[in-house]
Amino acid sequence: MKRDTVLAMVVSSESDGALFTAWRAGDRSSGDRLFVRHFPTLDRFFRNKVAADQIRDLVHRTFLVCLERPENLRQAANFRAYLLGIAHNILREHYRAGRRDDHDDVEACSAVELGAGPSTLLGAREEERLLLEALRSVPLECQVILELYYWEDLSGPQLAEVLGVPEDTARSRLRRARIRVGEVLERLARSRELLDSTRTNLEVWARSVRPQRSPAT
After folding, report:
1. In sequence order, what are the beta bridge partners of 139?
2. Number of CB atoms found within 10 A of residue 103's CB
3. Which residues, in sequence order, are bridge partners of residue 110?
4. How far is residue 9's CA from residue 39's CA, in Å, rounded to a whole number?
5. Sign of torsion over alpha carbons 126, 129, 132, 136
6. Residue 170: exposure state from Cβ atoms within 10 A (0-12, 13-18, ≥19)
7. Which long-range contacts (CB under 8 A, 24 or more apart) does 55-62 make?
8. At what angle do helices 140-152 and 126-135 cross, to 10 degrees?
9. Of 108, 90, 77, which Cα lies nearest the Cα of 177?
10. Beta-ladder partners of 146
11. Shortest CA distance to 130 belongs to which of 180, 176, 190?
């Protein structure tokens, strides 16, 4: 059995809560195991939104905030959603810090407008490439909720927890985000056939471009 497989089996046998409690008590190995478990999720969250060389730092900052503010974890129903909520705030702080004006509503801007640089994700099919371009062209708020829904399979309550809003608001934002990405697809598509194929099979293409994890080192 491969070492990575054995490690994954060991990590998966321990609850997030138990690992976190041990980590806060000074057990560094528990923190390492928690990091291995959730690194792929955070890596996916920041990928396609920031430059590749910034991802690792943002992931580490997310775990640091988690460790520094344990009181907020008690109110969270799901550790992964809790981490993603921190990552969401870290992302907004990252873009606010890089802006020269006083415009605070960074989520109204797209990743392209915020200067995220070229995407490191490449779709194999034309529909996938079109969708990736569209995701980076809609407001960041829309990109975040669509990727959380399609790539992380978050439910309505989990989306609400990550975004810090009521569930009805989260579902409403998801509906609006689908409409916005559809409008952008129509603008970017080079042919009616490509547009129809992408919009008709949106969920298939959205899940197919889910980023693969990069090494958690």
Report:
1. 110
2. 10
3. 139
4. 16
5. negative
6. buried
7. 55/214, 58/87, 58/90, 58/91, 58/94, 59/87, 61/90, 62/86, 62/87, 62/90
8. 130
9. 108
10. none
11. 190
Q: Which residue has the tokens 């399609």?
A: 150
pLDDT of residue 51: 87
Q: φ and ψ at 110, to 5 degrees? A: -85, 165
Token pair of 1 as six digits: 């059995």
Nearest to 161 by CA among 73, 59, 71: 73
Q: CA–CA separation, 117 vs 80, rounded Å?
A: 27
Question: What type of residue sits at position 37?
Answer: R
Q: What is the pLDDT of residues 71-129, one digit of tens each?
A: 666 655 688 999 999 999 999 999 988 665 555 688 889 888 887 665 666 666 888 88
Residues 136-170: pLDDT tens digits?
999 999 999 999 999 999 999 999 999 999 999 99
The pTM (predicted TM-score) of the whole model is: 0.82
Q: Which of 90, 81, 207 is nearest to 147 (CA)?
A: 207
Q: Which residue has the tokens 């138990």?
A: 18
Q: Provide the CA 40 distance to its chain's centre, in angstroms.
A: 10
As given in the structure block, the two tokens for residue 55 are 């991802």
Amino acid residing at 22:
A
Q: How many alpha carbons fall within 13 Å on the CB side of residue 64?
A: 7
Contact indicator for 128, 209 with CB cutoff of 8 Å: yes
- Closest listed residue to residue 138, CA positions, set 158, 159, 121, 116: 116
